[in-house]
Design a protein that fits this description.
The chain has 501 residues and is of the alpha/beta class. It has 17 helices and 21 strands.
């Protein structure tokens, strides 16, 4: 059996781990890794970069050793005298070093071959004849891959597409403009050599915006405040530590399976919502009251929550940290109507409680705001490139900046993703991949993550991972979710070969 893994970041490495660790692996099986970089197991988010670029999660939660949840924490203690910074956070490059070390035995396995090249196209073949087909033939499929240099001469029984992060969105059509930095990573390359005299603006204020604060405050003594231009809200809420030891938490995979059995394969959203609220209420906290107290996300409101260490809010934050592992499974247990209802009425509320800035980070940010080292301008509506250089920012106030950094997040529309990823462009053009909705996300089945489309149905053993399946693997921008899915899919694929030994 021949298996191809396209991309060797955390998804590709995790799928490889699931395959090689499986007892059904035979000595004649071959796994081919297609990755143009020579750094394997890391992926761009955790590649070598400035040490100021941080993980916004505790190292206790991102081990890649199922038998030891604290493996990463212990690795840090073994390798660094001071594993964390003043925010109690670990740098992303250090996590990359850990991933590279832990996955190295898999990439060095005698049945694994690394091809340092890109894949630009895939051909779907009839598994019996290995001839190209263009629609479902009621049979199984094999696959041929096209490298940058031309078609590869192997036929693969399974292909795992682990393509990583798409490009950042360019909402104002600024790509190619002088002094516009469309993607700030790696920051040690993209953001060096700037003048401290420049007025530096940042579009957006998500996790990338936090990284930019760390980088500029660490590496520059700026003459002017680092300015964030946002449409409405600035930054996510502070992750306030919960000071009690435990709380009621009902959700589990067993609970999901039981409820699906009660309701013919789906779980009514009303039951999920009631379970969530009842768990929080068991600790004496009303979710709706807390949400309405803080929903404006005004910085002064956040400041009050941080200074008071609001434990009602902290409980909901802690609860949602545990809920993350179950969100994709809960979402895919909803009926079509309930998915629409949830997305329209509750998705933003989930993100309000789920996506947070570490507590000490927010304390530091308030100090920087008070000192005038950073500032926030709301109401951004447009950006113009000035003839004499720099940019004119149209917001609540009109002002100019010399250098503009994009931190708006990723573009998930397949037509746009294809401009920088020829493989996505070709698969989309040939209808091998299709958008889940509104031109965005790749349609897959769940939880196997196999590509689906109208011509072939489920494309057996053509798997897809990463942010581009976020329409199915709901809220999946998380290292642990990425690892868990890819590992489980690799294991599931090998489970389908029960009589091979």
């Amino acid at each position: 059996m021949k298996i191809a893994i396209v991309g060797a970041g955390i998804s590709g490495a995790s799928a490889l781990k699931g395959i090689l660790d499986h007892p059904n692996l035979k000595i004649e099986d071959e796994i081919h890794i297609f990755e143009p970089r020579d750094i394997l197991g890391v992926g761009l988010p955790y590649s070598p970069d400035d040490e100021s670029v941080m993980l916004n999660i505790s190292p206790d939660f991102i081990s890649v050793d199922e038998k030891n949840p604290l493996d990463f924490t212990q690795w840090l203690e073994e390798h660094f005298e001071e594993p964390t910074n003043f925010e109690d956070l670990v740098s992303r490059p250090r996590y990359g070093q850990y991933l590279q070390e832990r996955f190295a035995p898999y990439f060095n396995h005698k049945q694994v071959i690394h091809f340092q090249t890109r894949i630009e196209d895939i051909e779907v073949l009839d598994s019996k004849t290995n001839q190209s087909i263009f629609e479902d033939k009621q049979g199984s499929y094999t696959y041929r891959l096209k490298k940058t240099e031309g078609w590869h001469n192997e036929i693969y029984d399974a292909v795992f597409l682990a393509l990583g992060h798409p490009q950042y969105a360019d909402y104002y059509g600024l790509d190619g403009s002088k002094n516009y930095i469309g993607n700030p990573y790696p920051m040690k390359d993209q953001l060096t050599g700037l003048s401290p005299e420049d007025r530096i603006g940042i579009i957006g204020s998500g996790a990338t915006g936090i990284d930019l604060i760390r980088f500029f405050m660490t590496n520059y003594h700026l003459k002017h405040p680092l300015t964030f231009y946002v449409r409405e809200h600035s930054f996510r809420f502070a992750d306030i530590p919960y000071e009690k030891d435990d709380f009621q938490f009902t959700f589990s995979m067993a609970w999901i399976q039981e409820e699906r059995g009660k309701h013919s394969g789906v779980i009514p959203f009303s039951i999920i919502l009631k379970t969530f609220k009842d768990d929080i209420q068991a600790e004496g906290v009303d979710v709706d009251t807390v949400y309405h107290k803080y929903k404006t996300r005004d910085l002064e409101i956040i400041r009050q929550a941080v200074e008071s260490k609001d434990q009602d809010l902290a409980l909901i934050h802690a609860y949602n940290s545990k809920l993350v592992a179950f969100i994709p499974h809960l979402y895919n247990s909803l009926s079509g109507q309930d998915k629409e209802f949830y997305l329209e009425n509750y998705h933003d509320k989930l993100k309000f409680f789920k996506t947070r800035v570490p507590y000490k980070t927010f304390q530091w940010m308030f100090d920087l705001l008070d000192q005038g080292k950073i500032r926030i301008v709301h109401g951004i509506s447009d950006v113009h490139v000035k003839d004499q250089g720099g940019f004119s920012m149209e917001a609540d106030r009109r002002e100019g900046v010399d250098v503009l950094v994009n931190a708006t997040g990723f573009n998930l529309r397949l037509s746009e993703v294809g401009k920088s990823l020829p493989l996505v462009q070709n698969l989309y053009h040939k209808n091998i991949i299709q958008p889940q909705f509104d031109g965005s996300f790749v349609l897959i089945d769940w939880p196997q993550a196999q590509v689906m489309n109208q011509n072939f149905g489920v494309l057996d053993n053509l798997f897809f991972f990463g942010m581009l399946i976020g329409g199915t693997q709901h809220e999946n921008n998380d290292a642990q979710l990425t690892y868990q899915l890819a590992t489980s899919v690799g294991t599931w694929f090998m489970d389908q070969q029960p009589n091979r030994n």
